[in-house]
Amino acid sequence: MKIITTIAEMRSLSGSHRMQGKKLGFVPTMGFLHEGHLSLMGRARQENDIVVASIFVNPTQFGPKEDLDRYPRDAAGDQAKCETSGVDVLFMPQVSEMYPEKPDVFVAVEGVSEVLEGALRPGHFRGVATVVAKLFNIIQPHRAYFGQKDFQQCVVIKRMVAGLNLDVEVAVLPTVREQDGLAMSSRNSYLSAEERRVASTIWRALSEGERLFRIGQRDAVALQGAVRSILLQQPGISVDYVEIVDPDGLRSKAVVEDRTLILVAVRVGRTRLIDNLQFL
Q1: Model's pTM, two decimal places?
Q2: 71, 173, 231, 255: least CB-packed within 10 angstroms?
């Protein structure tokens, strides 16, 4: 596995592979890798000639009171996991490489960035769209892989790719979960043993929403209320939102249909966790 830290070298190597007719699969991450990330790398390995992963904790997607400074990092462990997962090239730029000056050029994806996470984290998706656009431009992948846990992020990136006519296929893979259903996340490492137990309530609440849908409940308010009730009955959880939306435009739905999505954001102690479930 080759480790690259500069844009010039990464761009040169990607260009060389493309000139040889090789297909590039790309998995962007912020590091502290878990099985969810590795599943993306595994799929990329199956579908491409060259697999590129990136590890970059992007400062422009963090708000001033968020966890940029304490975001978990494990460079050596991440490198070993990437190599074991069949990654050919690991791009690990420093902030000064990606943003040599204070950023003044951004990508804004309107309509789907201002709701849900965007309403509570102003500027977050502007930072996400900007860094992903930069990485796509540097690496020039044929395919890029993302996890469904960050569903709104996936919608933003797909909309950006379409709007800017970027020549990359965006693949969204299912959320990888712990045995008790908790969605795998680098931020799970913040949780104490008790908080970790409490966090499993998120999947239990989503599963109750799915059960009600399967027995015929189609009223969005009723489903939201059932999910919210389970969350609020658990001491140690505070709820930021429980929303039911269409999966393409993230617009609120009054009646739940196939493919409708329920998204939740909660706080367990100091840790903010998100998850979702799609009614199929």
Answers
A1: 0.97
A2: 255
Domain ranges within the chain, ordered by starting residue: 2-173, 186-275
* Residue 153 amino acid letter: Q
Structure tokens at 92: 């690990």
Tokens (6 digits) for 26: 């790309």
Q: Which tens digits make up the pLDDT trace of 49-68? A: 999 999 999 999 999 989 99
Q: What pLDDT score does 280 carry?
A: 79
User: Rounded distance, CA 107 to CA 127, Å?
Assistant: 8
Instruction: Give CA–CA dist 260/245, Å, rounded.
Output: 6
Q: What is the DSSP string of 111-149?
A: TTSSSTHHHHSTTHHHHHHHHHHHHHHHH--SEEEEEGG
Tens digits of residue pLDDT in 220-238: 999 999 999 999 999 999 9
Q: Give every CB contact of residue 73 below 8 A, 6+ residues apart in sequence.
A: 31, 32, 57
What whole-number distance in Å separates Cα of residue 195 and Cα of residue 200?
Answer: 9
CATH no. for 2-173 = 3.40.50.620
- pLDDT for 67-93, tens place per residue? 999 999 999 999 999 999 999 999 999
SS3 assignment, position 146:
strand
Contact yes or no for 3/12 (Cβ under 8 A): no
**Distance between CA atoms of residues 280 and 101, nearest Å:** 46
CA dist 224 and 229 (Å) reads 8
Task: Tell me, yes or no, if 37 is annotated catalytic.
Answer: yes
Of 34, 37, 124, 142, the active-site residue reads 37
CATH code reported for the domain at 186-275: 3.30.1300.10
Q: Beta strand 2-4 with 24-29: parallel, antiparallel or unpaired?
A: unpaired
